[in-house]
Write a structure and sequence with these properties.
Bound molecules: fe (iii) ion
Number of strands: 9
Strand order of the largest sheet: 3-4-8-7-6-5
Shape: globular
Helix content: 10-25%
Number of helices: 3
Distance between the termini: 20 Å
Strand content: 25-35%
Radius of gyration: 14 Å
Length: about 140
């Protein structure tokens, strides 16, 4: 998979200010404020910045956190993780594997079969219902 690499100025032009703040500056949308935390349609979720397939509705569940939550990414090409010690917390950041957009964090308190909770900002995602079958 080819990486997508753009300058800060290019990302600013391409993204909305809110998307830019989250995906390039690692901001976090307020809980229960995003488009997808309670979204239940079948389909796929792509990276809002580059279109990479990130998650499927089949792995989405209601964590009660106020952010869209998934127990697994779509594939091994979907995301990368990195240690994040900002805000006096030790967390694992989740990034788009193709464009390095900040997506959210992953925690070890998710449901079976993985026990993982990918806690993702809605604004970093773009839902597409036609991605449903192949994204599963
Ligand atoms: Fe991306």
């Amino acid at each position: 998979m080819a990486k997508v690499s753009k300058s800060d100025a290019e990302w600013r032009k391409l993204l909305t200010p809110e998307q830019y703040e989250v995906t390039r500056q690692k901001d976090t949308e307020r809980p229960f404020s995003g488009k997808y935390y309670n979204w239940k349609e079948k389909g796929g979720y792509r990276c809002a910045a580059c279109g990479n397939k990130l998650f499927s509705s089949e792995a989405k569940y209601d964590s009660g956190s106020g952010w869209p939550s998934f127990y697994a990414p779509h594939s091994g090409e979907s995301v990368n993780t990195a240690p994040d010690t900002s805000h006096n917390m030790v967390r694992t950041e989740v990034r788009c594997r193709r464009c390095d957009a900040h997506l959210g964090h992953v925690f070890e308190d998710g449901p079976p079969p993985t026990g993982q909770r990918y806690c993702i900002n809605s604004i970093a995602l773009q839902f597409a219902s036609e991605d449903g079958e192949e994204a599963g």
